[in-house]
Amino acid sequence: MKKELAKNYDHTQVEDRIYAQWQKAGYFRAEVDPSRLPYTIVMPPPNVTGELHMGHALDATIQDILIRFKRMQGYSALWLPGIDHASISTEVKVVDKMREEENLSKEDVGREGFLERAWSWKHTYGDRILTQIRKFGSSCDWSRERFTMDEGLNRAVVEVFVRLYEKGLIYRGERLINWCPECQTTISDAEVEHKDNETYLYYMKYPVKDTGEYIHFATTRPETCFADVAVAVNPRDPRLAHLVGKTAVVPFVNREIPIIADEHVDIEFGVGALKITPGHSPADFDIGKRHGLPVINVMNDDGTLNANNAEFGGLDRFIAKDRIVEAFGKLGLFTKKERVTNAVGTHERCGKLVEPLIKLQWFVRMDELAKPAIHAHTSGELQVFPPRFGKVYMHWLENIRDWCISRQLWWGHRIPAYTCASCEHLVVARTTPASCPLCGHAELTQDEDCLDTWFSSALWPFSTLGWPDETEDLKYFYPTDTLVTSYDILFFWVVRMVFSGLEHMGELPFKHVIFHGLVRDSKGRKMSKTLGNGVDPLVLINEYGADVLRLTLMIGSSLEQDTRFDHKKVETNRTFLNKIWNATRFILMNIDGTAPDATVDISRLTAADKWILSRVNTLTEQVTDNLERYEFGLALQNIMDFIRDEFCDWYIEMVKPRLYNEDDPSRKVAVAALQAVMINSMKLLHPFMPFITEEVFQSLKSGTHAESIMICAWPVPQNNYSFPREEREVGLIKDAVKQIRALRLSKDVAPSKKVSVCVVAEKQEVRAVFENGLAFFTTLAGASGVHIRPDAEGIGGDAVSAVVEGAVIYIPLDELVDPEKEAARLEAERVKLTAEVARVDKMLSNERFLAGARPEVVRAEEAKRAKYSDMLSKVEEELAKACNR
Fold it and tell me: Which of 524, 724, 760, 851 has its Cβ near the most Cβ atoms within 10 Å?
């Protein structure tokens, strides 16, 4: 009994079933196996803040492509999954949920009550997210799933904190930090998103004491005037140099402040003078340090002005701005305002304006940690794809500031620092101290703050493998191999993993970093709730299947650009699955017996069989090379073109006469070739489209194959499948058939109408190729007869022609021929070939190309030059004939 497939491919009957089979069989699990090389990817852990989006789908697809590819290549391939606690984002979500559902704040329920609710959120949404990741077809090792706040990772975080503190690389101090009044917490520089903002530049002035003069300045932040501690001018500014050393007076608070000289003041900005506010400006903070100026804070944590603001205390910072300008105006100290656009820092989580404030916080000293990370890239040890992101990586590290790691939050890793209630001695320890080591007092209070989410995420490549313990997993799978992530978290995560791995493991956490682009809508816009253009990947999977989603995300993709997602492409791509399915059904219908046997008898192969098997060899080389170079879109295009064009549209049509003839002695070898080609094609396609390839493989495999395509060996070119001569010869016949089809189409010849074909080739070896392929002209080109000759003698002047390499095809279409249209067609062909010859000539005359290109590339271009020149000569000859008709 023959195997049969349903008439139509139905992903709803395939994907969940196959995924369950894979999991049950344990195919996703990576073993510590000294006889094999490891290959490791750690999943960028998605946040536990809700549903996954198309960016996650792209991320997961690329990682799964690599892990399936390497697994089939024989590596012990580990893809380690997990989720991130996402400190700020999750806390905001839980606080909102409490307010909406319970009418409670986190202060109402206390720290423990809040954490209970946060853990409940994690269990609900964390499980949902991991289920969604499975729907993508992700072949993760779920037995090693981790969470950034599980017990093992928390121990790693504490260990790192203590070690860095003991080395003097973590310290607590008062510094200018980024403060979010909305989220009520500090945030790191990497979490500040700079946006252009339309505002006003206010021209104001302070009286200069005992002179009757005023010093004019321009500012976009009048609300910080009462934090001013100096006014700076450039000593080279002739307008203001005479005021250096004098004293200005800040009105309302009547503070006397010095007028100082500083080379960093921009003479062209405003009126040349700069008010110095070290407590609310990073640039002013640096100037203040150079001049030993005091620091004044005029802002409360909620963004209102504090008591240092005279009668303006208590006002919201934005309201205060207008009130202060108005008050200055009444004193004659405000002159004008002009509209300007400047870049302002916003919190990338909530979008609110960030406020620079002086705070007592915990910091990581970055100078020493950054140096090895910089060297890793400059030495080539760490490779970044695309390379242009290496420049961004370097710029950030070379300009890095100390990292503020404390957050005023409850959800996260609590800082392991304890203060003695008696002597206020600060203790940093791995466990809660029983007593103060300085005075012996037993009451110590742990720091209320949590660590930045990225502090724990920075340890992900080694903490997930068991560090600080020397586990077998850690020794075997670390360092990992490839990190796949979106370019928008380069600063947040990638850089921090690099310096953390080098510091704590003595090795880079990964060798290659692949930055992919964002998934945008069909118009190139970023997907967002505001625009309403977001696409839920789970909805698409339910309707079309994961294979179609993965195909749509990857086809035509490039690491150099963002991906545009278009629903029209989804529909188009579904037809490719139907193509595969129908081809498989066709093969099964022609298999004799109960079990397929894809063993190919090399001695009985026809030219067509040798051509397709040789093309599989070429395809295998192309796909493997492109995957190794992370050219995912090109690799997928290679496979799709082969399956659709060469296999389905050509080879299957070529062998149909043999298959339909039960007495044809080559029928069996044709079936075996069909099976072998389809199975190898499915292996190459499997990393991209895992479900349909498994289903097809199970239908076609014989007893000699592995039980799953997942654990099959990756195809390699086989010497006994290498037939370069047949590749060229059948390629020539294909070109001829294409030209005949094009001629018929241009003359509106009905498909049912047979035409006589004449092939003129001067060389005997070319004529032999066409003689061996006569049958293809009948079945594929609708030829009633094919005549092969060395010259055009006797061919009527009314025949239309087409040029292929080494030959001219003639078709006497008699009254169907329009001489003018034929001449126009030949002229168009002449123009095209002339352009091709010119292009190749230009390339071959380019010294930089000749010096830098591989010899085989140069030889290929030289062969093209000869081919196009020969074709051009024949076209010009035919054009001359057509014009004389």
Answer: 760
What does the alpha-carbon distance between residue 496 and residue 457 come to, in Å, rounded to a whole number? 8
Q: Which of 375, 397, 500 is nearest to 190 (CA)?
A: 397
Token duo for residue 94: 């839980």
Residue-wise pLDDT for 756-795, tens only, equals: 889 999 999 999 998 888 888 888 888 878 889 899 887 8
**Residue 295 three-state SS:** coil
Q: Is 419 exposed, middle or buried (0-12, 13-18, 19+ CB in 10 A)?
A: middle
pLDDT value, residue 636: 97
Q: Are strands 519-520 and 563-564 parallel, antiparallel or unpaired?
A: parallel
Residue 787: other Cβ atoms inside 10 A: 14
How far is 827 from 823, CA to CA, in rounded Å?
Answer: 6
Helices (H) then strands (E): counts for the chain: 27, 29
Q: How many residues does the chain have?
A: 885
CA distance 606 to 116: 71
Vertex 884, ends 807 and 796: CA angle to 5°? Answer: 55
Whether the CB-CB separation of 479 and 488 falls below 8 Å is answered with no
pLDDT band at 51 (very low <50, low <70, confident <90, very high): confident
The mean pLDDT of 645-671, rounded to a whole number, is: 92
- The set of residues, in sequence order, having a beta carbon less than 8 Å from that of 842 and lying 6+ positions away, is none
Q: What are phi and psi of 554, to 5 degrees?
A: -100, -30
- On the question of pLDDT at 815 being above 60, the answer is no
DSSP assignment of 80-149 equals: E-EEB--HHHHHHHHHHHHHHHH---HHHHHHHHHHHHHHHHHHHHHHHHHHHHHHTT----GGG-EETT
**Helix/strand/coil percentages in the chain, nearest 5:** 50, 20, 35
Q: Which of 308, 257, 264 is nearest to 286 (CA)?
A: 264
Helix (H, G, I), strand (E, B) or coil at 604: helix
Q: What is the pLDDT of residue 599?
A: 66
The DSSP 8-state label assigned to residue 713 in this structure reads: P
Q: Is 708 exposed, middle or buried (0-12, 13-18, 19+ CB in 10 A)?
A: middle
Whether residue 610 is predicted with pLDDT greater than 90 in this model: the reply is yes
Q: From CA 800, how far away is CA 282, in angstroms rounded? A: 78
Strands 230-233 and 512-516: unpaired
- Write out pLDDT tens, residues 546-556: 999 999 999 98
Tokens 């190459």, residue located = 684
- CA R_g for the chain: 36
Encoding tokens for residue 363?
A: 């910091």
First-to-last C-alpha distance (Å) of the chain:
62
CB contact at 8 A, 385 and 514: yes
